[in-house]
Prior knowledge:
Blueprint: H1 18-31, H2 36-54, H3 62-75, H4 80-93, H5 98-107, H6 112-120, H7 130-142, H8 156-165, H9 170-178
GO biological process, one term: regulation of DNA repair
Keywords: Cytoplasm
Function: Modulates RecA activity.
Amino acid sequence: xxxxxxxxxxxxxxxxxxxxxxxxxxxxxxxxxxxxxxxxxxxxxxxxxxxxxxxxxxxxxxxxxxxxxxxxxxxxxxxxxxxxxxxxxxxxxxxxxxxxxxxxxxxxxxxxxxxxxxxxxxxxxxxxxxxxxxxxxxxxxxxxxxxxxxxxxxxxxxxxxxxxxxxxxxxxxxxxxxxxxxxxxx
Length: 186
């Protein structure tokens, strides 16, 4: 690979415009589901980078960013409730605890009420405990407890610790690690 010629100066990027912000938002939303606040952060980072390279003040584009985010929300491209529900379902299937899910959604800028509603509205068997199902899914994926090949007694404390670090309560972790495979069909 050849080194760039230091005598040739790079052209600064084009000026930030509302059309650029709209294109950037659509390009991001084509690839990723997002909350409104997360989209705002992504656009802010893009604007800050361009402004840094151009020597401009990014503060003058904050209103334009807000307008693009609001337009995305109005048009239905961004919906925090739908995003939270989809992320809860996805993270639960992978073995996410309610505590870990709350933390991840909070980092993405979803408010507490929306997170609580998404966790409360989990679909499924009304008799089943979603927290225990998620712990069981994590145990299966990580081969803990009843899913561990061979002798599992020497690894019990380690398996409990893995589930505790993932955000599951001790009673839930104990039921999963000490339980059998029957409820999963595995």
